[in-house]
Amino acid sequence: MSLPLVISEGFLSRKSLKKRVGNIMFKPGRIAIKQSPSRRIPGYELALDYEIEKCPQGQFVNFEMHGQIAGNPVHERFSLHRDVAYNFLHSAGLRLRKYGVMQGLERTPELRVDFEKAYADLRRRLGVEPGHPVDLDRFLLDRP
């Protein structure tokens, strides 16, 4: 995904986009994000770590989000079953609302490349291929 080059209402240059978002880093098992404050979003520095757990109910992905938002400490944990683990951004976004970040991470297009890497890492670790069935009840009802 290339970043928009046009500077006009509603678009950002690559330079202003980098300034706005700051640093984004992915490595297997971790996404780290540093966001400068803006009028709509408080500044934050967060890491979302994840690991696979096998238990009698199946495979789960355990997530731990930690860091700070507007200088306030953040520490949240949640687990998702393997077939709904790809919905982790929604679950993380719900938790971020408690700290004043109303726009979820999934709505931040400049993070997409790193999230795609995380999705690929999760697919590899869970042994899931595209087209793998999802339990719709779990997807709709399992909102940790």
Structure characterization notes:
It is a single chain. The protein is an alpha+beta fold and 144 residues long. The protein has one domain (17-141): Domain of unknown function DUF5064 (Double Stranded RNA Binding Domain, 2-Layer Sandwich), CATH 3.30.160.370. 27% of the residues lie in helices and 31% in strands. The chain contains four helices and five strands, in the order H-E-E-E-E-E-H-H-H. It has helices spanning 14-21, 88-97, 112-126, 136-141, and strands spanning 24-27, 30-35, 44-55, 58-69, 72-81. The chain has a five-stranded antiparallel β-sheet with strand order 1-2-3-4-5, covered by helices on one side. 17% of the residues are buried.
Provide a quick synopsis of the model.
With 144 residues, this protein is an alpha+beta fold. Helices cover 27% and strands 31% of the residues.
Cα-atom radius of gyration: 16 Å
CATH architecture: 2-Layer Sandwich
Largest sheet at a glance?
5 strands, antiparallel
Rough outline: globular
Q: How do the strands line up in the largest sheet? A: 1-2-3-4-5
How would you spell out the order of helices and strands?
Answer: HEEEEEHHH
- Here the CATH topology equals Double Stranded RNA Binding Domain
User: How helical, in percent, are the residues?
Assistant: 25-40%
Number of domains as seen in the coordinates:
1
Question: What is the number of strand segments?
Answer: 5
CATH class bucket: Alpha Beta
Strand content: 25-35%
Low-pLDDT stretches: 1-21
Quaternary structure classification = single chain
- CATH H-level superfamily: Domain of unknown function DUF5064
Query: CA-to-CA gap between the ends?
Result: 31 Å
Mean pLDDT comes to 78
